[in-house]
Design a protein that fits this description.
- By secondary structure, this protein is of the alpha+beta class.
- It has a domain at 5-72 and 97-177 and 269-352: 3-Layer(bba) Sandwich (FAD/NAD(P)-binding domain), CATH 3.50.50.
- It is 37% helix and 27% strand.
- The chain has helices spanning 12-23, 36-40, 50-58, 63-68, 88-92, 102-115, 164-167, 236-246, 249-254, 298-319, 328-350, 358-372, 375-386, and strands at residues 5-8, 28-31, 47-48, 70-72, 74-79, 82-87, 97-99, 119-121, 125-130, 138-143, 146-151, 154-157, 175-190, 200-203, 209-213, 219-225, 260-274, 277-278, 281-283, 289-290.
- It is globular, with a radius of gyration of 21 Å.
- The two termini are 32 Å apart.
- The model has no long low-confidence stretch (mean pLDDT 94).
């Protein structure tokens, strides 16, 4: 089989890239290691920047997002028990974010791909890119006990941190940068009304907390836990009690609790690989970079990778500008490092880590207080949170 672009991974990045390429008449095939239901079972991000939302609209899959998603003009940060609202719309001249769960946007993209009869091979195992430095790369994979070969012009590695794409690049051709944080986020999803109409980030001496939501009937809450903690250590009752301890009194009194419908612990790391390409293999999203979830940048930074590769390939096939492929990594990394910096900053400002010195704790407290007491400081936070515009590619 032959296609123009082989996409490894059917998460949001791979599916969105495939849909955008399809709209431009660029043929693509997606290979995914697991079944569709497993992909849809990943409970993750729900805060979409304007750039991500605009890409969904450009791909023609935004109807449900625009109907059911919640536009948020601001969010709150709690410091020393005091709530401070960041008015993103006012501070950025009209920008906002959309709250729409990753599961739902993934479902929308899957349905659009199936409706347009594009090819996706789920449960494709032993996926392996070949000849990435040659003009005609290819990918081999196993499906139903048989080995297949997919010839292509380019390969998009959208298969996450543990996927094969990055691992297919020789170690001496890439450099990895990483910071592991001594803790994680214990998250609970519950069919309860949210405690606040907008997200609330809490800095507390007992540890970080976040009040988030998926809709007006479904809430997502997080608390910082130790790196040694396990999900089974945390009953629902223990979780709700600890969350209430960290919330301001007025929010704790309003909190409606209920049975968890999903509970998990997400480790926190900052990770970037440079460069984000190897010949005709391009890395996107978690395959190339990971951020701690504090700044809501993971899915959104992946979207900027999708935008960059989609725009480049559109110009390659439409205008013959093959030289643009050499700029992919450079363009992506500018935005990636900006997202990494903001997520690292938010994480350090709002968490209490065991490896942080008393001096640094005082400095972080002073710094976040300065930003929250300054219009200029709040504008910086707002501009970063709603997302900077994508780079123009000429």
């Amino acid at each position: 089989m032959r296609t123009q672009v082989a996409i490894i991974g059917a998460g949001p990045s791979g599916l969105l890239l495939g849909q955008l390429l399809h709209k431009q008449g660029i043929d693509n095939v997606i290979l995914e290691r697991v079944a569709p239901d497993y992909v849809l079972g990943r409970i993750r991000a729900g805060v979409l920047e304007k750039g991500f939302a605009d890409l969904m609209r450009e791909a023609g899959v935004a109807d449900r997002m625009d109907t059911e998603g919640e536009v948020h003009d601001g969010f709150e940060i709690v410091l020393n028990g005091q709530r401070k609202r960041i008015d993103m719309k006012e501070l950025t001249g009209g920008d906002a974010v959309i709250i729409y769960g990753q599961t739902e946007l993934t479902r929308d993209l899957m349905e659009a791909r199936a409706k347009s009869n594009q090819i996706t091979y789920y449960e494709a195992t032993n996926v392996q890119p070949h000849d990435m430095l040659e003009e005609q790369p290819y990918v081999t994979y196993m499906k139903d006990g048989k080995e297949y070969r997919l010839d292509c012009d380019y390969i998009a590695g959208c298969d996450g941190f543990h996927g094969v794409s990055r691992k297919s690049i020789p170690n001496d051709c890439i450099t990895e940068y990483e910071r592991l944080y001594p803790g994680g986020w214990l998250g609970v999803l519950s069919d309860t009304p949210p405690v606040n109409p907008e997200l609330v980030y809490v800095r507390h001496e007992r540890g970080f907390a976040l009040c988030s939501l998926r809709s007006q009937t479904r809430s997502r809450y997080y608390i910082q836990v130790g790196i040694e903690d396990k999900v089974e250590d945390w009953s629902d009752e223990r979780f709700w009690q600890e969350l209430k301890r960290r919330l301001p009194e007025d929010l704790a009194e309003k909190l409606i609790t209920g049975p968890s419908i999903e509970k998990s612990i997400a480790p926190m790391r900052s990770f970037v690989v440079e460069p984000m390409q190897y010949g005709r293999l391009f890395l996107l999203g978690d395959a190339a970079h990971i951020v701690p979830p504090t700044g809501a940048k993971g899915l959104n930074t992946a979207a900027s990778d999708v935008y960059t590769l989609y725009t480049i390939l559109t110009k390659v096939y439409g205008e013959g500008k093959t030289e643009l492929t050499e700029k992919y990594s450079e363009i992506c990394l500018r935005r990636v490092w900006n997202g990494e910096r903001f997520s690292w900053w938010m994480t350090n400002m709002l968490h209490n880590f065991d490896d942080t010195s008393d001096f640094d704790k005082k400095m972080y407290t002073s710094e976040i207080a300065y930003y929250l007491d300054s219009d200029a400081g709040m504008r910086v936070i707002a501009e970063q949170y709603v997302g900077l515009p994508f780079d123009k590619i000429e």
